[in-house]
Amino acid sequence: MHEWALAEAVVSAASEVIEKSGIKDVTTINIGIGELQQIDLEIFKFALSQLLSGRLKDTKVKIKKTRAKLKCRVCGYRWSFSKTRLDESAKEAIHFVPEIAHAFVRCPKCNSPDFEVEQGRGVWIENIVGKKRCD
Amino acid sequence: MIDPRTAVINERLKNVRNVIAVSSGKGGVGKTLVASVLALNLARKGYKVGFFDLDFTSPSSHIVLDIGDQYPEEEKGIVPPQIHGLRYMSIVYYSAGKATSLRGSETSDAFIELLTAIKWGNLDFLILDMPPGIGDITLDLLRFMKNVKFLVVTTPSRLAFETVEKLLDLLRETGNSVLGVIENMQMQDSSWVRSQVEAKGFRYLGALPFDFELEQRISNIEGILMTKFSENLKKIIENLEQSV
Q1: A25 in contact with B at a CB cutoff of 8 Å?
Q2: CA-CA 20 to 30 A from A41: which of B22, B38, B49, B112?
Q3: What is the pLDDT of residues A75-110, one digit of tens each?
């Protein structure tokens, strides 16, 4: 249920940004989710629906999934995380700490553990849509 | 694009009264043993203690503390298991004994991810077993965890103190609290480290003479607590309790 912890972080960060930037009448929070962390979307959405309260209660949440793309730092080969075969325990470990992928994933060309996650790592807020406060 | 994770770090730590980072800058000075025995002794005194091994590439506290086969629970986050009276967390729960060769930014991301997810609950002390170096983890610690108190470990070697000195300078420049310096593995009477530490205006907490029995007691909790190393550290802790 790591999804709850991440949902709490999203709500807390969004509230902080709204407060600081003075956005009024927030309508939508656009969230990005990377494939690498293998978030359970249903649990994540449910957690968000439970955590959004007060003036954010009716805020729409839009979630965009991004495929995880990896690039070997040694030979430059690029590949998709979805093509990597992992057992369930490795997938679960990566779910909790995405960087643990370096313990389990190797470059398909040169077998190096030294790769970068070019996109699709974890959870992020794309933007928050609303009206700017007029005062 | 906003990284939301950092927004909950303070919330996760709000019921932790004291965070003590056992640090050195230099590797091989005995940080893990000092941190482990410090944590065990505080727990035996009746305090609620957490232990976080922040050495993500070469963790070893799980060996010292013989963590057994308990795993963190998932309860709207990660709840560290109770190991010998400590709420214990290490990357080893996720690495399955494999090498975790992480670059700096990856270490930083893993640290932030765990700070976001771990639910420490109520603690009197959270002991951080710091990695060697004054790189990413140290900088992230200064950035994200407020009111950390640093307990700095050195050996009598000038080679170790060369780096320790730099860590002390960094902590002073950044306005962080330093509980003091412990001189570990002392082989002969010498006041050199004490004089260096005091000349810089920091507190010299005491020396831990080299204990030849300690290696054999690793993984044996009762055995470790009966070593001279532990007895000497206990005296230092008694003085420290006043400071925190």
Answers
A1: no
A2: B112
A3: 999 999 998 899 999 999 999 999 999 999 999 999
Residue B234 CB coordination number (10 Å): 16
Best of A8, A26, A123 to mutate (most B CBs within 10 Å, chain B): A8
Per the listing, tokens 């999203």 go with: A10
Residue found under tokens 């009746």: B46
For residues B136 and B108, the answer to whether their CB atoms sit within 8 Å is: yes
**Chain B contact for A10 (CB, 8 A cutoff):** yes
> Does the CB of B2 have a partner CB in chain A at under 8 Å?
yes
Summary mean pLDDT of chain B: 95
Residue A133 burial (CB < 10 Å; 0-12/13-18/19+)? exposed
User: Quick one: closest CA in A to B99, which residue?
Assistant: A103
Query: For residue B114, which of A35, A5, A80 has the smallest C-alpha distance?
Result: A5
- B101-148 confidence digits (pLDDT tens): 999 999 999 999 999 999 999 999 999 999 998 899 999 999 999 889
How many angstroms separate the CA atoms of A11 and B238, rounded? Answer: 42
* Sign of the C-alpha dihedral computed for residues B102, B105, B106 and B110 taken in this order: positive
- Whether A134 shows a pLDDT value over 50: the answer reads no
CA gap A41, A48 in Å, rounded: 10
A5 with B75: Cβ contact below 8 A: no
Residues 40 through 99 of chain A touching chain B, CB cutoff 8 Å = 47, 89-90, 93, 96-99
Size of the A and B interface in Cβ pairs below 8 Å: 108
ipTM attached to this prediction: 0.93
Beta-bridge partners for A119: A69
What residue of A is the nearest CA neighbor of B93?
Answer: A93
Q: Choose, out of A97, A112, A127, the residue to mutate when testing the contact with B (most B CBs < 10 Å).
A: A97
Evaluated on CA atoms B145, B148, B154, B160, the torsion sign reads positive
